[in-house]
Design goal:
two-stranded antiparallel sheet; binds zinc ion; elongated; protein serine/threonine kinase activity; ATP-binding; alpha+beta; nucleotide-binding; two-stranded antiparallel ribbon; Protein kinase-like fold; 10 strands; kinase
């Protein structure tokens, strides 16, 4: 393939954008399976606690970063009757007979424990923090959920939000590109990362010569969904 220097003035065929998925994915950390399983154990305990002892989602297994195989135990014997993994209250006892609280359970300040379940004298955490408004990272291959207040934004990419991993790549992947519009030669700066993260072709013309292309959506919807009044915390019973 003929190599063309995009910065070389007098050329009419600038470098064609090449797909480079590697740099989009390599910096997204993989969580080890034992960490996932610890979180899954705490999640099961959380479902019981947060549902005020009505439901327990368990048996989640972490396989290469994905949680699979859930089983649901539910106190109400009229629900999920056809699920043979639903052991109702016996399922709660079964879970707590082996569950050892880990640091995630402690961080969640879960109160219920095996002793309470066996004696059917349950207590639960009463007050829970309200969840901050969240947005998705605008890199389509990342999509990490970040608090709206901490997400990185820039006028250059309206309506986009970026996580801490993707944000620096917008700037560091900037290249100077030759504008293909007719007229005197000139170049422009363009973030390769931005276009590849959107699965879009790199522009061949500078901003002036290009019609405004619509930026990635995602943030706007969330902005509309945001509620006006923000609660600091919510009661454990309102689930
Ligand atoms: Zn626990
Ligand atoms: Zn990201
Ligand atoms: Zn131009």
């Amino acid at each position: 393939m003929k190599q063309v220097n995009p910065l070389k003035r007098n050329t009419t065929t600038p470098e064609r954008p090449r797909p480079n998925r590697a740099f989009l994915t390599r910096r997204i950390p993989r969580i080890p399976d034992d960490e996932i399983n610890k979180a899954a154990q705490a999640f099961s305990h959380f479902t019981f606690e947060r549902s005020w002892g009505t439901i327990l989602v368990c048996d989640l297994q972490g396989v290469r970063g994905v949680l699979t195989d859930p089983a649901i135990h539910i106190a109400n014997t009229n629900r999920f009757r056809l699920a043979d993994t639903n052991l109702n209250k016996e399922g709660f006892k079964f879970f707590f007979s082996t569950h050892v609280c880990n640091d995630v359970c402690r961080k969640l300040e879960l109160i219920s424990n095996a002793d309470m379940v066996m004696k059917d004298k349950l207590e639960f955490r009463e007050i829970w923090p309200a969840v901050d408004n969240t947005v998705y990272c605008s890199n389509n291959l990342c999509g990490k959920i970040v608090p709206a207040s901490g997400a990185r934004k820039s006028d250059e990419f309206p309506r986009c939000h970026w996580c801490e991993t993707c944000w620096p790549q917008l700037e560091s992947s900037k290249v100077r590109w030759m504008c293909v519009a007719p007229g005197p030669d000139h170049d422009f700066h363009v973030s390769k990362f931005f276009y590849e993260s959107q699965g879009r072709e790199m522009p061949r013309k500078c901003g002036k010569h290009r019609e405004e292309e619509p930026a990635a959506v995602g943030g706007a919807l969330w902005a509309r969904m945001k509620s006006g009044a923000k609660q600091k915390n919510i009661s454990g019973r309102s689930w």
